[in-house]
Design brief:
The chain is α/β, with parallel strands linked by helices. The chain has a single domain, classed as NADP-dependent oxidoreductase domain (TIM Barrel). It is built from ten helices and ten strands. It holds the Pfam family Aldo_ket_red.
């Protein structure tokens, strides 16, 4: 992991960038368009959106106008809870594809484990994968028991699990399970929506490395083998977030950061979420 374009290889051989841009809560239209355009201009290859973010159209327009060849980019989107189920997922995917103005997406995820529906949704993702409309399929916000449930009847095993992950929520057991089962873990809200940026332990480490607190956290993600997609709409922050490939955290500092874990979530608990 020495470069913004460095990739991890998913269990089906597809290469996924370690680092990308997330667009959660970024407004459709000019805001998301400029954010994605800036990221691609700065060398980002991975863009992560979702149907429920309601900004797929702006993301698609920015990709189209970027001038970058489609096969050089890695685009992720997700099926929302209300659209889960076999036929409804297939229809939702076509809608996302149309909004993104793409022929395929690189990664399609089930956004949340909706009880009684996510297994049918997974079958739909397998169909899309077999039809080569997606290059990789995975899940988001799945706990170990959800993953085991899907895997028990799956023809194709999940390739990615995107979850809330930051120094206050290290999810070590889940990370270990994913690694053991060749599922790439990916972090959303890696900076805990800014709540960790003034943490004394992190600011002390940041000063020693002459880096920002955000850069320290994002580097910690990568060194733990977790793909990460911080969100920003400011070009200077998008650039700064990616300046994490010219240093390495020591094992001691990695452990110090991990020891901040409190199993504290900023988003919903997947086991107690009102779907």
């Amino acid at each position: 992991m020495n470069h913004l374009q460095d990739t991890t290889t998913l269990h089906n051989g597809v290469k996924m960038p370690w680092f990308g841009l997330g667009v959660f809560k970024v407004e459709d239209g000019d805001e998301v368009y400029q954010s994605v355009k800036s990221a691609i201009k700065l060398g980002y290859k991975s863009i992560d959106t979702a149907a429920v973010y309601k900004n797929e159209e702006g993301v698609g327009r920015a990709i189209k106008d970027s001038g970058i060849a489609r096969d050089e980019l890695f685009v992720t989107t997700k099926v929302w809870n209300a659209d889960q189920g076999y036929d409804t997922t297939l229809a939702a995917f076509e809608e996302s594809l149309k909004k993104l103005q793409l022929d395929y997406v690189d990664l399609y995820l089930i956004h949340w484990p909706v009880e009684g529906k996510y297994k049918d949704t997974w079958r739909a993702l397998e169909t899309l994968y077999k039809e080569k409309k997606v290059r990789a399929i995975g899940v988001s916000n799945f706990q170990i028991h959800h993953l085991k449930d899907v895997m028990a009847s799956a023809e194709i095993m999940p390739m990615v699990n995107q979850v809330e992950y930051h120094p206050r929520l290290t999810q070590q057991e889940l990370l270990n399970f994913c690694k053991e089962n060749n599922i790439q873990m990916e972090a959303w809200s890696p900076l805990m929506q800014g709540e960790l940026l003034n943490h004394p332990v992190l600011t002390e480490i940041a000063e020693r490395y002459n880096k920002s607190t955000a850069q320290i956290i994002l580097r910690w993600d990568l060194q733990n083998g977790v793909v990460t997609i911080p969100k920003s709409v400011k070009e200077d922050r998008i650039q700064s977030n990616a300046a994490i490939f010219d240093f390495e955290l020591s094992m001691d500092d990695m452990q110090k950061i991990s020891s901040l874990n409190e199993d504290k979530r900023i988003g919903p608990d997947p086991d107690h979420f009102d779907f």
